[in-house]
Amino acid sequence: MFDRQPVLYNERVIIRPLNREDFGALYAVASDPLLWELHPASNRWKKDVFKQLFNAALDSGGALTVIDKGANQIIGSSRFNVPDLKSSRAEIGWSYLARDYWGGAWNREIKRMLMSHAFRFVDTVYFRIGDENMRSRRATEKLGTRLSEETEIIKMPDGAPVRHVIYEITKQEFADQPLLPS
Question: Which of 80, 90, 115, 129 could pair with 62 in a Cys bridge, judged by C-beta atoms 3.0 to 4.6 Å apart?
Fold first, then answer.
């Protein structure tokens, strides 16, 4: 059975289950409009919109809080989704990090921790990203994922249909990657 809310940690990061008390710290991160600039739901920086996202994350049973261990500070969130328990695929998504943590090894390190955990249970991990969100697409490509031919049209909270692309990586592809320095 896939554990969608593990506690994972290394020398720099703690990843733990999201809880209601995380709202204030996560909204402090998410209230930066530049985080959502390329996202199909670019208004998630607004408190009422973010509250909907936060509540959906709590309800999902797979949401996680990401903490900078050294600063003892919440820096973002991510989520596991396993839509079909009979499938050997899991999604990692709904991820966001404070801008101070962009551009370095943080995203790669966090996602590698999440993928390592997921591959204990499944053979493939995938990421669903808005087609035009080039920042997220480039960051996902740096993880060694490949763009699949699969796409989805997802209705956003405002009702607008948005094309999403799927990036994936298999357990073997992940295992074959060279270890990168943090």
Answer: 80
